[in-house]
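TL;DR need structure tokens for one chain.
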Amino acid sequence: MIFIAELQTQDSDITSTFMAAKKTYADPFAEDDHEGVAQAALDSFEEQIAIIDKTGRIVAVNASWENFPDRQPAGVLDRPPIGTNYLARLRRQNPSGGKISTLIRNIKSLVRGHKGKFTIELPSHTGSKKRWLQLSVTRLPGGGEPAGAVLTYSDITARKLAELAARKHSMTDQMTGILNRRAGLEALRKQIKLCERHGRSFTACYIDLDNLKLVNDSYGHKEGDRVITTIVKLISGVLRESDVMCRLGGDELLLILHETTLDGSGAVLKRIHSVVEARNARSKKPYGIEFSYGLAEYTPGCKRTAEDLVDMADRDMYRMKLVRKTVALSR
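>> reply
TL;DR here they are.
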């Protein structure tokens, strides 16, 4: 049910003038109970709704607002009662700025007639429980001039969780559970920005599994996939939380070693070799897991792109493979 409140301009009695709202179409009950019809219309919405006058004072609320179960002590997620100055409450409880300052500024602009509507998303997490609310603020006209605004809180948790799940799915390599190529390159770009901001180097490590084609041809692609997932788990176990791993495709992985120089990356690779060799020693498989790697260091001011680093590390890895082949042929 949609209705428009015909507010008089007297600020001193805006509550009673709002509650005397009339519907925009003929209503057989309009002559009998303006206040009851208007309140019933407000109460029919699941969203939490409040009306404020142009000073920011709450002059009417619906049942969902009044009975909001997750009342906060104060602040933007609170549902204060009629008579409270909402803007003053926001300023008092959220003085530090950010989204709240933006909210206050927009509400003021709206009730002055400079805009008609705006929305803002607000997290309302408690512990491990994730929850998001959307606050929509719509200008309420009265006699041709702004008379106040309608505040509407909607629970958008289901939508936000779906968006996060879709984003995670789009960023994840489905076989290994680590970042896919696109997400890995994006993480590399972010690392470059951090490097430039803080003036600290990092290293990209390109890893290529050796002889995976032989495993696929001899034991099947399912076994080859098992090799890839196994080495991903082994490497994950020795990386730091600040490091990142992605699957570039096929049997190729990329490690982003946070604040690590070329020399420092040796310790990481030593740990990787150690866990892979330990796995090979206890495995009953008729083959061992082997890999080649290449390194590329990013230093502040070097102006290399994410693609440049991947290419440099890739070429360094192929040099390692070439050396190994040369040594094997000379034996």
